[in-house]
Design brief:
The protein is an alpha+beta fold and 168 residues long. 53% of the residues lie in helices and 20% in strands. The protein is built from six helices and seven strands; from the N terminus they run αβββααβααβββα. The strands form three sheets. The protein has a three-stranded antiparallel β-sheet, with no helix packed on it. Strands 1-2 form a two-stranded antiparallel sheet. β1 and β2 form a beta hairpin. The longest helix has 42 residues. The chain is extended. 14% of the residues are buried.
Length: 168
């Protein structure tokens, strides 16, 4: 008989989140789900997809997943870190990242910053990740609005100066 042995330290790493699920009537209900804090959850079809990628693409993808911090789906990894850890050259890493982007495994957010689509893979509590993502998007929206207002005010001030010069 196979025994499952869980030590006390592992029990401290178990957390809980709610997962939406459909009942027999087609209604969405939230079901509590236990998970290990440091584990990464990957949809099974994504695992099939990555299995058909070349070895270097797989290495880069799994390294990105490994670098995710709890409750986030965005990670910053410099190219030279990929080189050092995976012992791959820059060209191979660039091709792997390009392939991962084309196949929608990751998105490039900024230089050396990658986002893993939360509907495919994530680490931590999905509810927290979605909340953080909404907050980040709201901050971006506010920043863009502030920049537009600042540009508009600057434009109007410049226009006033031009009109004053013409009237002189």
């Amino acid at each position: 008989m196979n025994e499952i042995i869980i030590d006390e330290q592992e029990l401290l790493n178990i957390d809980e989140m709610t997962v939406p699920e459909y009942n027999n009537k087609g209604e969405v209900i939230n079901r509590p789900c236990k998970y290990l804090n440091e584990s990464v959850r990957v949809k099974i079809d994504r695992l099939y997809d990555i299995a058909y990628c070349n070895r270097s693409t797989q290495l880069v993808y799994f390294y990105i997943l490994d670098c995710l911090k709890k409750n986030t789906n965005v990670v910053k990894i410099e190219r030279n870190t990929f080189e050092e850890v995976l012992t791959l050259d820059k060209g191979t890493i660039s091709k792997a990242i390009k392939s991962l982007v084309e196949k929608n495994f990751i998105q490039i957010i900024d230089k050396d910053t990658y986002k893993v689509p939360v509907d495919q893979s994530f680490k931590g509590n999905i509810d927290t990740i979605i909340k953080k993502d909404k907050e980040r998007k709201e901050e971006e929206r506010k920043y863009k609005l502030e920049q537009e207002n600042k540009n508009r005010i600057e434009y109007l001030n410049n226009l006033r100066k031009l009109k004053l010069k013409r009237n002189e």
